[in-house]
Design brief:
With about 550 residues, this protein is an alpha/beta fold. Helices cover about 30% and strands about 20% of the residues. It contains 16 helices and 22 strands. The chain has helices at about 5-10, 90-110, 175-180, 225-240, 250-260, 275-280, 325-335, 370-380, 390-395, 395-405, 425-440, 460-470, 480-485, 485-495, 510-525, 535; strands spanning about 40-45, 45-50, 60, 80, 120-130, 135-150, 170, 195-210, 215, 280-285, 290-295, 310-315, 355-365, 385-390, 410, 450, 470-475, 475-480, 500-505, 530, 550, 555. A hairpin with a 2-residue loop joins strand 21 (about 550) and strand 22 (about 555). The radius of gyration is 28 Å and the shape is elongated. The protein starts with a helix and ends with a strand. The relative contact order is 0.11. Residues about 1-45, about 65-85, about 150-195 and about 250-280 have low confidence and may be disordered. It binds nickel (II) ion. Nickel (II) ion binds near residues 363, 364, 413 and 453. Nickel (II) ion (NI) binds near residues 363, 417 and 453.
């Protein structure tokens, strides 16, 4: 499996790969960046502690090599939102492990609920620092699970890696939701007129060197002494802010109000100095300017209702931050503060056996509208497959070259667009060969794919293509754009007929077709589709399909 992370997404059974914005309704502001707490600064000991509104992260859409695309299905009637990462590759396994755990936990929880349709899981990735080939990557997870408001019982014990006692009710569903006709109360739960949504927030960060292929859990960069010092520092800050009464006051109160029978630590007197840092902190970021941001786990230093809180620690004196870190942490901090520009993250291939892929294909060009189409595809970061008429390619080699340069696959649509089976085998061969030659002369790779005009093919053609090491490419979604000549109709047809694995047929010689492309891309991406070339759609190596016909990802014969 090339992309282990994506398995996590499917394990949830139901998912929506979201953009980078948090749609959380529980955050104090509706900012596009996850926000927690209020901003204030206090000087404690030698270090400044600042409560952050925003944990200092950057949307991944600004990072090369990342994708995050929405996808939505409907397991248990509950919306699940996850976000995919396919680069850097070293992150896939650890991220999968964590998102798997979140998804499993959520699935188990909502499986026991009378009204699971109110439940949601949303995971939002962000970049938390970068320099050179070092990248800090964080995922925020927010689970909302409905529980009858009248029930005092805590949520079921979870397998979460951080303290997971139930949070306070943050939202109240409408009575109509609670009275859903399909909802049958479970034996342990009393039917109520109200359902509240309990919110659980978790986060985890990793730091990767994508050139070396290494990745570490951000928490391992704190030394044991550093964890103790940090939790004491933040506790002191909270006391000075009046958020908690004393070092153990609020935490003890929190434990009392949210004790889970399966959590042995929750009932104990809370002493930050004794805590394992991995329980108090969800994640640690190392800034480009040397500061340290810690995400404090929900329900640890502050009561449950506060969610995750984040604090930025900046140093007042030399060595203030460094002495909180392990030697590896200090080395990474040096790298992140080096001022080096973020290197380009190598893209990893899309695994269409996991993601929902579609291939846009454009026939009969290049033509007068091809440049506009290429601009659109560049802006949308979408790669397509172009089947060129040889004589048109020969008359506009610069456009052919541009198609190839910009990452599209350039393929063969015959020299003069005849119905190939009507030709003698010699003429048929010449139609293919001259076009291959024109494409190669323009500077594009020699085509491995041939689309016969009108989809007309016979045994002679397939045998010829087999000998040439080429596959025939047909389609299974025909937009009829050459006939429609109508932008809205082209959009509707493409979007309605698209399905995972589809090869979509369009023609870039018609302005209405080219104009339809931006919205086709937007609408299908919002449904979770990833646009790929035909070779990517069928697994990369098309030479194995020489002499065969590719109709779609799943229909090759
Ligand atoms: Ni054609």
């Amino acid at each position: 499996m090339r992309n282990r992370l994506t398995g996590a997404l499917f394990l949830a059974g139901s998912l929506m790969l979201a953009g980078c914005t948090s749609s959380s309704g529980t955050n104090p502001s509706e900012s596009a960046t996850p926000t927690w707490g209020t901003s204030s600064t206090a000087s404690s000991s030698s270090l400044h502690v600042e409560t952050l509104d925003t944990p200092g992260t950057t949307a991944l859409e600004n990072s090369p090599g990342f994708i995050d695309l929405p996808r939505q299905t409907d397991a248990f009637g509950a919306p699940v939102t996850l976000t995919g990462v396919r680069a850097p590759e070293a992150l896939h396994a650890p991220v999968q492990e964590w998102t798997d755990a979140q998804a499993e936990l959520f699935t188990a929880e909502i499986g026991q609920l009378p009204t699971p349709s109110d439940a949601s899981l949303e995971m939002t990735p962000s970049r938390c620092g970068a320099a050179g080939s070092i990248l800090c990557y964080v995922i925020y997870s927010q689970t909302k699970v409905p529980h009858p408001a009248a029930s005092p019982e805590p949520a079921a014990p979870t397998i979460s890696t951080s303290p997971s006692a139930p949070s306070h009710p943050t939202e109240t569903a409408t009575p109509a939701d609670a009275a859903h006709p399909d909802a049958s109360p479970s034996p342990s739960q009393t039917p109520t007129s109200q359902v509240s949504l309990e919110t659980r927030e978790e986060a985890k960060a990793w730091i990767t060197d994508f050139e070396k292929g290494t990745v570490v859990d951000s928490l391992t960069l704190l030394s044991d002494e550093g964890r103790d010092a940090l939790s004491a520092l933040i506790t002191e800050h909270l006391v000075s802010e009046g958020k908690i009464d004393s070092h153990d006051g609020a935490a003890a109160e929190s434990a009392d109000s949210s004790a889970s029978p399966a959590d042995p630590t929750a009932s104990e007197e809370h002493d930050p100095a004794q805590d394992n840092g991995s329980e108090i902190f969800d994640a640690v970021f190392l800034d480009e300017d040397g500061a340290l941001t810690v995400l404090v786990s929900q329900g640890t230093l502050l009561p449950e209702g506060e969610g995750i809180t984040s604090y930025r620690i900046s140093e007042e004196r030399e060595g203030g931050i460094a002495e909180l870190l392990t030697p590896d942490g200090a080395t990474l901090r040096d790298a992140l503060t080096s001022g080096a520009e973020l290197a380009s993250i190598p893209e990893t291939p899309v695994d269409c056996s996991v993601f929902s892929c579609v291939a846009l294909t454009f026939d009969d060009g290049p033509g007068p509208y091809t440049a506009e189409l290429l601009d659109t595809l560049k802006e949308k970061d979408v790669k397509a497959t172009f089947f060129l008429v040889g004589r048109s390619a020969a008359s506009d080699p610069a456009m052919v070259s541009r198609e190839a340069q910009e990452g599209h696959v350039v393929a063969n649509h015959s020299w003069s667009h005849p119905s190939l089976p009507t030709l003698s085998s010699g003429t048929m061969a010449a139609e293919i060969e001259q076009t291959d030659q024109a494409i190669e002369d323009a500077g594009a790779p020699r085509p491995l794919l041939v689309r016969p005009p009108y989809g007309d093919k016979n045994a002679t053609l397939l045998s010829l293509l087999g000998q040439r090491g080429q596959a025939a490419v047909l389609w299974d979604v025909d937009t009829m754009d050459w006939k429609n000549r109508n932008v809205s109709k082209n959009i509707e047809t493409a979007v309605e007929k698209a399905h995972p694995g589809a090869i979509i047929l369009m023609h870039d010689i018609h302005p209405e077709s080219v104009e339809a492309v931006p919205e086709i891309i937007d609408r299908l991406e919002s449904q979770g589709y990833i646009f790929v070339t035909v070779p990517e759609l069928v697994g990369g190596d098309v030479s194995q399909y020489a002499g065969m016909s590719i109709y779609s990802q799943h229909n090759i014969r």
